[in-house]
Amino acid sequence: MQPCLNCIAPACRASFGINEIIYNCPKCGGLLEAKYDFSDIDVHLLKRIWRERRMENNPLDQSGVWRYRELFPFLDDYNSVVTLREGNTPLLQSVRAAAYGGLANITFKHQGFNPTGSFKDNGMTAGVAQARRLGMKRVACVSTGNTSASMAAYASAGGLDPLIFIPNGNIAYGKLAQALEYGAKTFQVDANFDQILALVRVLTERLGIYLLNSINPFRIEGQKSIVIEMMDQRDWKVPDWVVLPGGNLGNVSAFGKGLRELHQLGFIDRLPRLAVIQAAGASPFYEYMREKGSKPFEAQGHPETLATAIKIGDPVSWPKAQFEIETSNGVVESVTEQEIADAKAVIGHSGIGCEPASAATLAGIRKLKLDRNADVVAVLTGNVLKDPDYIYRYHTGALQAPDSSPIKPNFGNAPIVVPNDAEKITALLAG
Ligand SMILES: *Cc1c(COP(=O)(O)O)cnc(C)c1O
Ligand SMILES: [Zn+2]
Predict the structure, then answer these.
(1) Using one digit for the tens of pLDDT, what is the confidence trace for 255-287?
(2) Using an 8 Å Cβ cutoff, are 282 and 305 in contact?
(3) Which of 295, 401, 358, 405 is nearest to 108 (CA)?
(4) 249 CA: nearest ligand 1 atom
(5) Residue of 243, 310, 332 with the most ligand 1 atoms within 8 Å of its CB, for mutation
(6) What integer pLDDT is reported at residue 1 of this predicted model?
(7) Alpha helix (H) residue ranges in 313-413
(8) Dist CA 362 CA 102 (whole Å)
(9) 3-7, 186-190, 277-281: least confident range
(10) Termini Cα distance of the chain
C-alpha cells in the first residue's frame, strides 16, 4: 500500500493520493489524515536505530522530528526536507510546580526549546517538506502568532515565499517580530481569524499557494514526533496522563494519532490518558465534551483570552480531537485567566518558564485534582519570551483580563525601586 490521505468521516472514508493538493475531503468536506503501510516496522530495531541517530552529524538524524521518520513516511526521498534541528526538547522536573498542581512529581516536555520557540516547528518542518516536494513556490497561513513565526522561518530557510495573514491587533509582539525578521510578507486584515481563513482559502486556490494552517495533515504528522520523542526519552515507559493546551486542537489530534500508532505497532504497552485544557473564554471544545458530544458542536463567535495561542472559537480539528479524547479515556477542562496567570508564574519561578497558553496545563492539572502519585507529563507549548508584555504586567499588578477585570499578582515579583545606598539596601535585604 502506498501512503495516502484518508477522509476520517466514518460515513465516507474516501482515499486520495498523497500528492493531491487538498486540505479537506473533496467528497464530503471531512478532515484528512495520512495513512501508511507499517507492516515492515521492526520495533526493537527502530528503537535502537533512533537512539544511535542521536550521535550522528547528519542533519536528518539530528532533527528531533526526522529522526523518527519511519513513523511518518509520506515522502519518496528526503531532498525536500528543511530542518533547523527542531524537536530535541527536554523533559524537565519541578518540585514547586508539582506541589502547586497537587502532585508528588511532574514532568514538563518543553516545546519552547524549539528553533522558533514553539511546538509549531515540529509540524512545520513536515508541512514545508511537503510543499517543496509538490513544487510549490509560496506558502500561506492565518495565525494567532506561533504558526506564522514558524512558517516564516521554515519557508525562508527552504527558499519559499511565506505569506502571513493576521487579525489586526491581538498578537504577541515576540511572535510578530519573528515573522517580520524571518522575511514573511505579512498582511494585517481587519477581520477575525475565521473570516481571514475563508479569505485565505480563496487566495490559495486562485493563486496556487500551499496552505499551511493546522488543517494541513502533514503538519499533524510532524507533530506526532513530540510524543514519539517523549516516549523515547522515557525509555518507552507510558505516563498516566499527557496534558496539553487546546486551541485549534491540531496538537491533541497529533498526540492521539501518534500514541495510537505507537501502541498498535507495539512500541508501548498501553495508551496514556489525554487531558486538553482550554481557556474559559475560548472553550467551545470543553463545552461540547461536557455534554459528551450529545449536542451539535457549536463555535464561539467571540473567543477571549490573554493566552492568544489558544484564542480560537471555531477549532478546525475538533472531530479528530473528540476521537482521541474518547479513545484514550481522556478529559477536557477549562481554566480562568487568573488560574493561567498564577500557574504561569509558578512555572516561571521553577526556572522553567513558558508562554500563557502553555501554563493552562498546570492550571488544569491543579483543577482536575489528579491522583497525587500519578505520572503526569505536561506539554509546555511555547517559550517564555514570546509574550514579555504579559509577564511585566502580571508581576507589576497591571494585567487585566479581556473583560477588564484585574488579575491579581498572587505570585507577583515586581522590581523594587531603591536608593543608591548600601545601608538602606542591606536593611531591606535583612528585613
Ligand atoms: C498553537 C499553540 C497552541 C494550541 O495548539 P492547537 O494545536 O491549536 O490546539 C497552544 N500553545 C501554543 C504556545 C501554541 O503555539
Ligand atoms: Zn469524506
Answers:
(1) 999 999 999 999 999 999 999 999 999 999 999
(2) yes
(3) 358
(4) 9
(5) 310
(6) 84
(7) 318-327, 337-349, 356-368, 388-395
(8) 10
(9) 186-190
(10) 72
Give the pLDDT confidence score for residue 102 in this predicted structure.
98
CA-to-CA separations, 337 to 99, 196, 249, 343, 397, in angstroms, rounded: 20, 26, 20, 10, 14
**Binding site membership of 249 for ligand 1 (Cβ less than 6 Å):** yes
Quote the cell numbers at residue 288: 461540547
Exposure on the CB side of residue 294, measured as CA atoms within 13 A? 3
The second-level CATH assignment, the architecture, of 91-117+217-395 is: 3-Layer(aba) Sandwich (3.40)
Distance CA 399, CA 406 (A): 6
Question: Which residue has the least CA distance to atom 4 on ligand 1?
Answer: 247
- The residues spanned by each domain of the chain are 1-37, 91-117+217-395
Mean pLDDT within 163-176:
84
Ligand 1 atom nearest the C-alpha of 223 is: 7
pLDDT tops 80 at residue 194: no
This prediction has a pTM of 0.97
Dihedral angle sign, alpha carbons of residues 306, 309, 313, 318 = negative
CA angle 211, 312, 348 (to 5 degrees): 105
